[in-house]
Amino acid sequence: MSERLGVTPAQTVGPYLHIGLPWPDGPYAVPEGTPGACWIRGQIVDGTGAPVVDALVESWQADPDGRFDHPDDPRGARPSTVPGFRGFARTETDGQGWYGLLTVKPGPLPTPEGETEAPHLTLSVFARGLLHRLVTRVYFPDEATANAADPVLRGVDPDRRDTLLASPAPDGYRFDIRLQGEHETVFFAV
Amino acid sequence: MTRDGYDTTHPLTLPSYRRDDVDAHPPLLSPGYKSTVIRAPHQPLVYLPQRLTEVTGPLLGEGRLGEFDHDLTRQHDGEPQGQRIIVHGRVLDGDGRAVPHTLVEIWQANAAGRYRHILDNWPAPLDPHFTGVGRTLTDERGRYEFITVQPGAYPWRNHDNAWRPAHIHFSLFGRAFTQRLVTQMYFPGDPLFFQDPVLNSVRDEQARQRLIARYDHATTRPEWALAYEFDIVLRGRDETPFEDEDDDE
Ligand SMILES: [Fe+3]
């Protein structure tokens, strides 16, 4: 019935992604002023330790109840109880390699194996010099018990797990991304 | 049962997207493209099972589009310089199914090969009537169409006398996080292909050909614009047992 087609290969966003991809409301996965909203900010650095000033980070996540307003969630699509919740943010790095996005902490998620995933955001990183996006996850420092039971974190080399853990910051969390070398962030094949 | 009737005791069955062939995408470390050397991770990627966060994704677009977002020749008071072109095609998944109502974003250099970007300052002219950014949604059959001008080639400093072949950057969401794709469309017969490490980072010849649009004479409009067809294929889903029953091959 259906033909099998080869996928279109990925290519880099190149150095001029800023003309095409940023949106004025990009950094806001929730509207400004949302109760309980937090900023997730971090710096992206390359293998030489230099800030990556031409990157774009996108985030995707469940809402605080662990739900998605999406038809492929087998529990049913459900609009969030948080008004204006988009679940998606898009933020380009600044002249010092910093990105920032405003969101609310997601809830835990069930898995098909009957386990529970700890609250997390999934990130895509795009930049000149990245021929394909990099995928990583942000976990929260105040979820020690849930993190210890998380099937994805448990599958990561214990010495590298902390690269997936945000740290507390005055208005939310900090999550740095090291593309290469010492303390390299864990990146995933999805 | 939770308050919205979701039965937490019922096992969760998720759609699953086929993982791409090893050669479908460029290796992250492709030393011919110099900046990959300090930016590609050294550690191998860690296998991530596709769970709820990966098989869902942002369904965006409605309300994001302005009247002329799909027509890059009508975003200013005057018309941009250059060869007017129509770029159209379908967004499909790996099983040939249309991906409807999905956001397609493009950006490109002007006819002289210059981007309207603060860091692009090689001596080619900017065009006051060309921004180089477009957005549209696919229709119910996965079709999209842009009207723009033929972008020029541009130099970069990657290697001696390095020039990027003319291209248009494309960004697609599909319906799941696993389908997210950013790529570039090239034009058929470009003499600069041989020396371009970005296109040639895709090692499989057939996969590389999928980045090159087809000149489409049937859609070319007399005395108005040349047309190029560029279909984009996102990942397909693994068939579920239920779907197999419908499959009478
Ligand atoms: Fe480009």
Automatic annotation (TrEMBL), chain A:
Classification via SUPFAM superfamilies: Aromatic compound dioxygenase
Domain Intradiol ring-cleavage dioxygenases: 39-181
One MF term in the entry's GO annotations: ferric iron binding
Keywords: Dioxygenase, Oxidoreductase
Keyword Oxidoreductase: yes
Skewed-composition ranges (Basic and acidic residues): 64-76
Disordered as annotated region, ranges: 62-87
A Pfam family annotated for this UniProt entry: Dioxygenase_C
Keyword field contains Oxidoreductase: yes
Membership in a protein family: Belongs to the intradiol ring-cleavage dioxygenase family.
Protein name according to UniProt: Protocatechuate 3,4-dioxygenase subunit alpha
Originating organism: Micromonospora endophytica
UniProtKB/TrEMBL annotation, chain B:
InterPro entries listed in its UniProt record: Intradiol_dOase_C (IPR000627), Intradiol_dOase_core (IPR015889), Intradiol_RC_Dioxygenase (IPR050770), PCDO_beta_N (IPR024756), Protocat_dOase_a (IPR012786), Protocat_dOase_b (IPR012785)
Identification of the protein by name: Protocatechuate 3,4-dioxygenase subunit beta
Keyword Oxidoreductase in record: yes
UniProt family annotation: Belongs to the intradiol ring-cleavage dioxygenase family.
Any Gene Ontology biological process: 3,4-dihydroxybenzoate catabolic process
Alphabetical keyword list: Dioxygenase, Oxidoreductase
Pfam families linked: Dioxygenase_C (PF00775), PCDO_beta_N (PF12391)
A molecular function GO annotation: protocatechuate 3,4-dioxygenase activity
Keyword Oxidoreductase assigned: yes
Annotated CDD domains: 3_4-PCD_beta
